[in-house]
Structure formats: C-alpha cells, structure tokens
Amino acid sequence: MKAAAQKYGDGADEDQWAMAGLLHDADYDQWPEDHPHRIVAWLEEKGENGMAHAISAHYTKWGVSYETALDKALLACDELTGFIVACCLVRPEGVATLKPKSVKKKLKTKSFAAKVERDEVVAGVDMLGVDLGEHIQFIIDALKPHGEELGIAGSKRD
C-alpha cells in the first residue's frame, strides 16, 4: 500500500496507506464473523476515521461508498495482492519471473485460489481507472523486493 500511495495517492501519506494495508484484515483471523467491525471500531476510537472508512469500504458487503483514493486503492490492491501471492507460491521461480499474462490466466481458473473475490479485483481496477495488466504488474513490482520475507521468492538455483 505504500507503493500504491506513491502511484495512486497524489502526495498521500504513505505511512497511513501502509497502516491501512496492514490493519484492514487485522481482526479477521481471531473474529472472522465480526470482520471488519472490530478493527473499524478500534480505528474510530483512535480518531483514524479516514482509515476506518477505507477499511469499511474494502468490505464490499457493507456497501460503503468509495470517496478517496485510499478507499479505491485498498479495494484494488487487497484481493489482487493475495491472488498474486498465491500465483507465486505455485511457481518454482516465485515472484521473480511472474508476468501479468500468467496472473490473468489463473484469474480465469475459478478453482485456483477459489476464495478470492474476482468481482472485487475487477471493481477495484475499474474504480482506479487503470488497466488490469498494468495494475497486476504494479503489484508484482511492489512485491518483488520483499519476496524473501514474504516467502514468494521461489527456490534458489545453484
């Protein structure tokens, strides 16, 4: 999301966007039935209303409006980033050689990463007004420097 702030945020606070990316699913593992109520309430208590709104909007079932670039970018990056990570995990080279064409092909395979909401991927890209292939490449490029720490670097070759 820090990279998204640079690309889509027009001078946005990169740290705020990074925190939104880190926190948007913070309550999911422990309280999936309450997601994202708990994290949104906590952020509102802390006076982080913009971040709370973006996280509310990313949960499309609530029907919250997309008002800011952060709202739109969080939706556009969330599901697609998870999907791209899944693509990396099934490739020997991981993220190193991943191309948008491969990701698009996997998106058409409904059984691959079946829980990824493909409609949200499309909606997010449409809201940002960007090409799907270009956005996929943007996310790949943002992930590459962190491949090792994310476990998506692939196997090392001698």
Mean pLDDT: 91
- What Rg do the Cα atoms give? 16 Å
Distance between the termini: 33 Å
Stretches with pLDDT under 50, minimum 5 residues: none
**Topology pattern, helix = H, strand = E:** HHHHHHHHH
Q: How large a portion of the residues is in β-strands, by DSSP E?
A: under 5%
Task: Count every helix, treating DSSP H or I runs of 4 or more residues as helices.
Answer: 9
Task: Provide the number of structural domains.
Answer: 1
Reported for the largest beta sheet, the result is: none
Derived structural class: mainly alpha
Beta-strand segment tally:
0
User: What is the helix fraction of residues, given as a range?
Assistant: 55-70%
Shape: globular
List the helices and strands and how they pair.
Elements: H1 2-8, H2 14-23, H3 37-45, H4 49-58, H5 69-89, H6 100-108, H7 118-128, H8 132-143, H9 147-150
Describe the structure.
The model has no long low-confidence stretch (mean pLDDT 91). Helix 4 (49-58) crosses helix 5 (69-89) and helix 6 packs across helix 8 (132-143). The termini are far apart. The chain has helices at residues 2-8, 14-23, 37-45, 49-58, 69-89, 100-108, 118-128, 132-143, 147-150. The chain is globular, with a radius of gyration of 16 Å. It is mainly α. The chain has nine helices and no strands.
